[in-house]
Design a protein that fits this description.
The structure holds two protein chains of two kinds. By secondary structure, chain A is of the alpha+beta class. Chain A folds into two domains: about 100 residues, no CATH class; about 130 residues, TATA-Binding Protein (2-Layer Sandwich), CATH 3.30.310. Chain A contains nine helices and twelve strands. Chain A is globular. By secondary structure, chain B is mostly helical. Classes of the chains: A alpha+beta, B mainly alpha.
């Protein structure tokens, strides 16, 4: 099942029936929800009105609860929009799952491993095989991010220790998040490695989900049978089964 | 050509100290590092230097374990 840690969506204006105008401010002809409001809402990063649409930047944390880190998937997407409505900023004309267009995605997979640090070392070592294509950088002091050298491609893979990422973040919003999920949840994820494929352009999203759709809808992404995280991981570690060259006739 | 000279030429010295006795892995690394155009070219190179390569490979045991960790992770990501 496709799970998202973050998604930027474009919801058509006609799918929004009510807007609390007091929560918005205008700067440089951009109409956005005030930062002081957003800083207290876990999981909601941005709401901006532009080009007759509302841009919603939502994190999976919006669904966080005791024992649940919070990710967005096809089984909770309606709950995600309900949570946005519960903030009192806007109200939808029916939930816009079918109409929302995707602009940016973090496709995510959490995996439990025996030794998280050794796992990161192993990935880094194998990823160095493709150093001519990718660069390996530190990610928030809790793991790695593997990015292509080509600036035209925004498709990258972050691999990090979720536990470390949570406890190192001292922002007020993160403290509210920790309270929501509970300290015992953080203890339980000490062996969890998170893999996040960041897809920042339509071209990258289409390639990752093997789709030709002109407008990429949220529904199509959430119901996709593809596994973009696995594909990217195999690519960066040169682990593709179908690599005809590496499975060639052995000569030893 | 001596193996050291060959390795220097293709920039493989660092990598050869980091893998184990797994032929597929060796092929993979040779392919990536040397950018050979065909498997037969690669076969010729491996056959020419197989003694020296085997010796280098046996010096380090970590790579095989790392390869296993990554393969296990791929299985879990696929679930």
């Amino acid at each position: 099942m496709i799970t998202l840690d973050r998604v930027r969506l474009l919801v058509p204006e006609n799918k929004v029936t009510e807007v609390n105008q007091e929560t918005f401010y205008t700067v440089n002809e951009k109409i956005s929800v005030k930062k002081e409001i957003l800083k207290n809402i876990v999981g909601l990063r941005e709401i901006t009105y532009m080009n007759n649409s509302f841009l919603l930047d939502i994190s999976g944390k919006i669904t966080a609860d005791k024992g649940i880190l919070g990710l967005i998937h096809k089984n909770n997407i309606e709950q995600v929009f309900e949570k946005v409505e519960n903030t009192g900023i806007l109200r939808f004309n029916g939930l816009p799952v079918d109409d929302a267009q995707v602009l940016y995605l973090d496709v995510t997979k959490d995996v439990e491993v025996e030794n998280p640090l050794e796992t990161l070392t192993a990935i880094e070592l194998l990823a160095t095989q493709r150093k001519h294509k990718n660069k390996i950088l530190q990610f928030q002091n809790s793991g790695l991010i593997i990015k292509p050298h080509a600036k035209s491609i925004s498709d990258s893979l972050a691999i990090y220790l979720k536990y470390k990422e949570i406890i190192q973040n001292k922002s007020p919003k993160n403290l509210i998040y920790i309270e929501k999920i509970g300290i015992e949840t953080i203890e339980k994820i000490k062996k969890t490695v998170r893999l996040e494929r960041h897809l920042g352009t339509f071209k990258d999203i289409r390639k990752a989900f093997k789709t030709n759709s002109k407008k990429i809808r949220l529904k199509e992404i959430l119901h996709s049978k593809k596994n973009p995280v696995k594909d990217k991981f195999c690519e960066i570690t040169s682990s593709n089964e179908y690599d005809w060259f590496t499975v060639g006739k052995e000569v030893f | 050509m001596k193996i050291q000279k060959f390795l220097k030429k293709v920039g493989m010295r660092a990598i050869l100290t980091n893998f184990d006795d797994d032929v597929k892995v060796i092929r993979k690394m040779l392919k990536i590092e040397c950018e050979f155009s065909s498997p037969s070219t690669l076969n010729t190179v491996i056959a020419t230097f197989k003694g020296e390569l085997k010796e280098k490979i046996s010096e380090n045991k970590n790579f095989f374990r790392y390869q296993k960790i990554v393969q296990d992770l791929i299985k879990k990501i696929g679930e």
